[in-house]
Design a protein that fits this description.
The chain is of the alpha+beta class. The chain has three domains: 74 residues, CAT RNA-binding domain (Transcription Regulation, Sacy, Chain A, Roll), CATH 2.30.24; 99 residues, PTS-regulatory domain, PRD (Orthogonal Bundle); 104 residues, PTS-regulatory domain, PRD (Orthogonal Bundle). Helix content is 59%, strand content 10%. The protein contains eleven helices and seven strands. It has a four-stranded antiparallel β-sheet, with helices on one face. The longest helix is centred in the middle third of the chain and has 22 residues. It starts with a strand and ends with a helix. This is Transcription antiterminator LicT. It holds the Pfam family PRD. GO terms for molecular function: RNA binding. One of its GO terms (biological process) is regulation of DNA-templated transcription.
Length: 292
């Protein structure tokens, strides 16, 4: 793959082509010597090494985190329909706007590849059911809403109407990039959250109000607890006096917290500390109190 070199003259940015990936995408090197990928309609058509690209022709510049990711992106884009790339870029931009946070750059590889392959499978009548559809709706409502936006955009731009299962799959890719975790970790975290909530429901023998703010806060806490358990991150040091006070105030909720901890110990050899037990007890109290 050829690259691009940035040249600055009188405050104006120029790029010089070394090689095109396809008619609309070329690779580049930024001012620090790091390779990038540049997209713009027609910028690679009949280009030659040394040709300049005016900034107004540039639609998107991809800065990947590693050279391996850059190489994978170039390989992916070399045979990818431009409209698939453009739709994915719009979905990612929308996700950043809604979530208000940085997403791991690898999402340009994983989500573009996923959407393009899903379009192919749909046209071959080979769509699959997403077993985590219900869980993604419950535990990641923002990301799932982004998935729904993606379905509408894909239908409008690509003429393909995916089922809701695909919104959950797209949401999973957003979660991966949002929390900087692998797809496998995202699946495992979702399963752990479901099991921990099941323990709390069974312990108190009552359903939880999944529309409440307290429930949302509890799920957010469980997400990070599950991630620490999977990565075997040592629990933070606890304040024994605080734990004793919480245990005295909420003995049932503290016992339930330790049941959750026992589950993590049995399944992932992860032990929760006093601080985690106290935090869990407070969250459990908020979502199970009679007036909750």
């Amino acid at each position: 793959m050829r690259n691009l070199v940035f040249l600055y003259f009188a405050g104006y940015l120029w790029m010089k082509i070394l090689k095109a990936i396809n008619n609309n995408i070329v690779s580049a090197r930024d001012e620090n010597g790091k390779e990038i990928v540049v997209m713009g309609r027609g910028i690679g058509f009949k280009c030659r090494e040394g040709d300049s690209i005016p900034p107004e022709a540039i639609e998107k510049i991809f800065h990947m985190d590693t050279q391996n990711e850059t190489d994978r992106l170039k390989q992916l884009f070399s045979s990818m329909p431009l409209e698939h790339i453009e739709v994915t870029n719009r979905i990612i931009a929308y996700a950043r706007k809604i979530l208000g946070k940085r997403l791991n750059h690898s999402i340009y590889i994983t989500l573009t590849d996923h959407i393009s392959f899903s379009v192919l499978r749909f046209r071959q009548n080979m769509m699959f059911h997403n077993a985590l559809l219900a869980e993604m709706r419950r535990f990641y409502p923002q990301e799932y809403s982004i998935g729904q936006y993606a379905l509408d955009l894909i239908a409008k731009e690509l003429g393909v109407r995916f089922p809701d299962d695909e919104a959950a799959s797209i949401a999973m890719h957003i979660v991966n990039a949002e929390y900087d975790i692998s797809l496998g970790e995202a699946v495992d975290i979702t399963h752990l959250i479901d099991q921990m909530l099941r323990i709390v429901r069974d312990w108190h023998r009552r359903p939880l109000d999944e529309t409440s703010v307290d429930f949302d806060r509890f799920v957010t806490h469980l997400k990070f607890l599950a991630q620490r358990a999977l990565r075997q991150d040592r629990p933070p040091a606890g304040d024994r006096a605080l734990y004793d006070a919480i245990a005295a105030l909420y003995p049932g909720e503290t016992a339930c917290a330790h049941r959750v901890g026992a589950y993590l110990g049995d399944t992932h050899s992860f032990l929760i500390g006093d601080l985690e037990a106290a935090c869990l007890a407070i969250h459990i109290r908020r979502v199970t109190a009679p007036d909750a």
